[in-house]
Amino acid sequence: MSRAFTKETDAPETLPERTLSTHRNNVTARGLAQLRARADSVRNELHAARTRADTALALTLARDLRWLDARIASAIVVNPAAQPPQRVAFGAEVTVQDETGATQRWQIVGEDEADASAGKVSWVSPLARALLDAQVGDEVIWQRPAGARTLRVMRIAYPR
Description:
By secondary structure, this protein is of the alpha/beta class. It has three helices and seven strands; from the N terminus they run E-H-H-E-E-E-E-H-E-E.
């Protein structure tokens, strides 16, 4: 029998680290709170996995916790009150209208808080980049894989 495919040790394999973004880690206060809550949850799951001696899960959770801790440590909380109220900037809720007259509202948030289904887009996304620095009444071009779209900025607000 060939031994080519047998393990020499029962030691668990090491997992590659999760990739950290190369962008500044701008976050809203809510985004930072969400990161901290996720880290607390993973910390609890890690403890439970170690208690059950679930080594594979513990390795995955420990890696995820290192990533979360790094994201929290590098977080730069952006104060919405310090943003220019007449221009789209980080943290803004922007209401736009497309060529068909349909309106949508998007909030520009940190990478880890982004959730398109909840209307939250990362500040480094093509949509946010198109909107950043625009004013009410401006038209911007959103370059999408499905084709460019023209959006008119209808409203800018900064949630408190």
